[in-house]
Write a structure and sequence with these properties.
749 residues, alpha/beta, TIM Barrel, globular
């Protein structure tokens, strides 16, 4: 028996959703105007959603709604309003990023199926177990994973009754999703809020390697890897493209549907993929899936590659006129557009009309005949009609009692009382009961779920103690800071992304230096996650900070106190409550993307500490790809283990506004890009007194343009003066550390 693999298509607007359905998609994902990670798409309204669900379900197609951004406390009431509507629509699932939203769904909206967004950056077994504890039924795995890693995670997911989906076509992101802040920092448009302006696609000052678009990757296509994905047990193949037009969606979905329908009986690798090149593409690569991360994944042009590809496969010489090829391609695209328009023109997502016909006579039940374009049925009263001279059933009274049937899914087109005898009465509670039965039947014989009220969180008393200072280091040469006053200062040591090769050495380091506390990175893939778990078991530190939910789950299971790191993107009170209640978390760093007002609204649970990083290099992105191929050049064609362990280069790229960003590759870590100026926020100490248990400074040797006028012990003393309330300390720090910025704190999300 063949195992069915789902084909999941993007729907940025109603026409794209219709195109996906007629092309044969098994499911579509789409976003409402709010709370989704593609604000640049047209998106849909709640009224659209009901019609879309009706149309999709009639064609055996599921609909998943994207609610995949981080949520602010001020948005929680509107979010509950949205969820209270969604739960009565028959939606097939919602796609989520925010930890607080996972919690709310698992506690208050248990009838909604929950999927973990790609923004969760899921890449290890512990993260699967973390999500399982939040009632997640499906997870979209990180795009950077190779087929062996996908197979291992799919096995772990299935053991937890979780399905896996993998992006198989569309844009590649250069950065790990959810860990990319380049659009947020450089343009004020956060990717974690659905506003990514795609600066990775921008033109930059020509690099020493001769590239004008040094951060631009080709598109992803696993078109010829279906057998490997099937063998890995993947449940759903996901096409990217909620900003793409309907003819793009139709073409790509139709190609993939044909491929799936022919599998496994016909899985020859010679299948023609030419149609995929006829719609927008930046050329294609499957290098992440193959585990071959190489320089050929880049393309020095972010524009449509269709004409260039067609020019090449036709064997045209450089002297040939590419305009003729472009004209041919334009004509083909026009034909596709017209074909798709014709296929979808009669598909309606408009509200369904209701025709209500009331009938009855003295001594008989009241009957209401209900007719929609899809169905008809009759509802009768339990008691009989009686004579009356007041409150009789006339058009005005009937319209008043039944007008609530005008919903996002239906509207009353006609009320007919011709067959109802005049001057009759029936109890109002009978009318209410009939109205409720009509609603029940119109809702697919499901009862209307009453709205859930926003839970109230109880504010705790303000802290009475002075916040403590913590420091982050990543080199043994900085161990001397363990002996730097104050004696109660916590020293965190950032563990490398590629921990496996240094596991024994670092274990010894921590066992010999009991004051050191581990700081776990956001990305721990495969053997590096396993090494991190073994490290925890052997060292058993008194406390950790983790930016990886897999390690958070492990720490909870092993009863090791843990703090949620800044790259878990904590922006609301319910995220704090979730981690305390579900995972025994003792505290959390608040995201540096939010401002004073947004922080002030957050309500931590009892016996829970808040932390904030007031000085650090600003991470723009973390990438599994090499960022030197296109910038300063690299002799190697591809990334290997030696690159990760041994490379310690740095470089920079400068955009056309003259703003530089720093590429800094630490040995044992993935490639990172940083803002040219470090983050320094002295204002928060006085803006939000008695809020934070601790403030944090990052003293790792990350090479940015920021310079300090003193050594590391001197910096510690200066920040201690700030926390002690020295009136001149903020000015002294701003003069000492230059250049710096706290623009994120001022702007917020």
């Amino acid at each position: 028996m063949k195992r069915k693999i789902e084909l999941l298509a993007p729907g940025g607007d109603v026409d794209s959703i219709k195109a996906a359905i007629v092309a044969g998609a098994d499911a579509v994902y789409c976003g409402l105007v709010k709370f989704n990670a593609r604000n640049r798409a047209v998106n849909i309204t709640l009224e659209d959603l009901n019609g879309i669900l009706r149309l999709a379900h009639k064609n055996d197609c599921k609909v998943f709604l994207t609610l995949n951004i981080v949520i602010l406390d001020c948005e929680i009431p509107a979010l509950f309003g949205c969820l209270n509507e969604i739960i009565n629509t028959g939606i097939d699932g919602v796609i989520v990023q925010d930890i607080g939203l996972f919690y709310l769904l698992s506690e208050y909206f248990t009838d909604i199926e929950v999927h973990a967004s790609t923004q969760c950056t899921t890449h290890n077994k512990g993260q699967i177990e973390f999500l399982n504890k939040l009632a997640v039924t499906r997870v979209n795995l990180s795009r950077e994973l190779n087929i062996d890693e996908i197979k291992e995670l799919t096995l772990a997911a299935h053991e937890n009754d979780i399905m896996t989906e993998v992006f198989v076509h569309g844009s590649y992101c250069l950065a790990f999703s959810g860990l990319c802040y380049i659009s947020s920092i450089l343009g004020g448009n956060s990717g974690n809020r659905g506003r990514c302006s795609q600066p990775c696609r921008d033109r930059y000052v020509t690099t020493p390697a001769g590239k004008d678009f040094p951060l631009n990757l080709k598109d992803n296509s696993a078109y010829f890897d279906l057998k490997e994905l099937a063998d890995a047990g993947v449940d759903s193949l996901k096409v990217e493209g909620r900003i793409k037009k309907f003819h793009y969606v139709y073409t790509v979905v139709r190609c993939w549907k044909k491929r799936l329908l022919g599998f496994p009986d016909h899985d020859g690798q010679s299948d023609d993929s030419i149609d995929l090149y006829k719609v927008f593409n930046r050329d294609f690569s499957n290098a992440y899936l193959k585990g071959d991360i190489n320089k050929d994944m880049f393309i020095d042009n972010p524009r449509d590659n269709s004409a260039k590809h067609l020019f090449e496969i036709k064997g045209c010489s450089p002297s040939d006129d590419i305009q003729a090829v472009k004209k041919e391609l334009y004509d083909e695209k026009t034909e596709i557009i017209n074909i798709v328009r014709d296929k979808i023109k009669d598909l309606s997502v408009a509200k369904h009309s209701l025709e209500l016909s009331f009938s009855g006579k003295l001594g008989s039940p009241l009957s209401v005949s209900v007719k929609t374009p899809d169905t008809s049925f009759v509802v009768r009263s339990e008691s009989n009609l009686i004579n009356a001279d007041r409150y009789t059933l006339d058009y005005e009274s009937v319209e008043k009692r039944f007008r609530c049937l005008n919903t996002a899914a239906h509207y009353i087109k006609q009320i007919d009382l011709d067959n109802l005898q005049k001057d009759l009465f029936i109890a109002f509670h009978e009318l209410a009961s009939m109205k409720n039965r009509i609603s029940f039947l119109l809702n697919g014989s499901k009862g209307i779920i009453p709205p859930v009220e926003v839970p109230r969180l109880r504010k705790q008393g303000r802290l009475k103690t002075r916040p403590a200072l913590s420091v982050l280091i990543s080199s043994p040469k900085d161990l001397e800071l363990c002996n730097t006053p104050p004696a109660d200062m916590d020293i965190y040591y950032k563990l490398p992304d590629c921990l496996e090769s240094q596991k024994d050495e670092l274990t010894d380091l921590f066992l010999k230096n009991k004051k050191l506390l581990p700081w776990f990175p956001a990305v721990l893939i495969g053997e590096n996650y396993t090494a991190a778990v073994e490290f925890l078991e052997r060292v058993r530190p008194r406390r950790i900070v983790t930016n990886n939910t897999g390690i958070a789950y492990t720490a909870c299971e092993k009863k090791i106190p843990w703090i949620a790191g800044p790259y878990l993107n904590i922006t609301n009170s319910f995220s704090l409550l979730c981690m305390k209640e579900k995972f025994n978390c003792s505290g959390a760093f608040i995201s540096n993307e939010i401002n004073r007002k947004q922080i002030k609204k957050m309500v931590p649970p009892g016996d829970f500490n808040l932390y904030y990083s007031i000085y650090h290099p600003i991470l723009l992105m973390t990438s599994r790809q090499c960022l030197f191929h296109q910038t300063i050049g690299c002799d190697k064609e591809r990334v290997d283990d030696q690159c990760l362990q041994g490379c310690g280069k740095s470089a920079s790229v400068t955009n056309l506004k003259g703003v530089s960003s720093i590429i800094d590759k630490q040995k044992g870590d993935y490639h990172c890009m940083y803002n040219n100026a470090n983050f320094l926020n002295t204002d928060i100490v006085t803006d939000l007194p008695d809020t934070f248990s601790g403030f944090f400074i990052d003293l790792r040797d990350i090479k940015t343009e920021t310079k300090t006028g003193t050594d590391k012990p001197g910096l510690i003393r200066a920040f201690e003066n700030l926390l002690n309330g020295n009136p001149d300390s903020a000015t002294e720090l701003e003069q000492m550390i230059h250049p710096s910025t706290n623009a994120q704190y001022k702007k917020g999300l």
